[in-house]
Amino acid sequence: APCAFSGNGRQCATNGTECRSGWVGPNGGITNFDNFAFAMLTVFQCITMEGWTDVLYWMNDAMGFELPWVYFVSLVIFGSFFVLNLVLGVLSGEFSKEREKAKARGDFQKLREKQQLEEDLKGYLDWITQAEDIDPENEEEGDEEGKRN
């Protein structure tokens, strides 16, 4: 963690602790507010409530303890409890819509298969009927043989 001999940072003891002019930052330099991308990642980390207290403590070390708590309390209340649940609600609604669409597609496919089977069956029945209509002579001969026996 950063340290300083004066100011709001951690106070360095004179027992060999070294204060450097530059510091990568916490989590290998990922957790910071130096640019928009890392700031959004840090805010996301805070609203998911995964390690937000560490970020609060680092902010306290860098800026003092008077104001950062206001930012983090409002971020957790508004971000975590309201916005995150709103996003989850929208996602849940979208998944429900997709599930309904998939069900409708499945029902349509079943109906289409049933219609195809009925058309095939009608075609077979027409074919059989036509075959019976074409060969009435064999039918008459079969009747005569049946009468002889």
From TrEMBL:
Ca(2+) binds at E50. Keywords: Calcium, Calcium channel, Calcium transport, Glycoprotein, Ion channel, Ion transport, Membrane, Metal-binding, Transmembrane, Transmembrane helix, Transport, Voltage-gated channel. Glycans are attached at N15. One of its GO terms (biological process) is calcium ion import across plasma membrane. It is found in: Membrane. Residues 132-149 have a biased composition (Acidic residues). Residues 20-102 form the Ion transport domain. This is Calcium voltage-gated channel subunit alpha1 D. It comes from Chelydra serpentina (Snapping turtle).
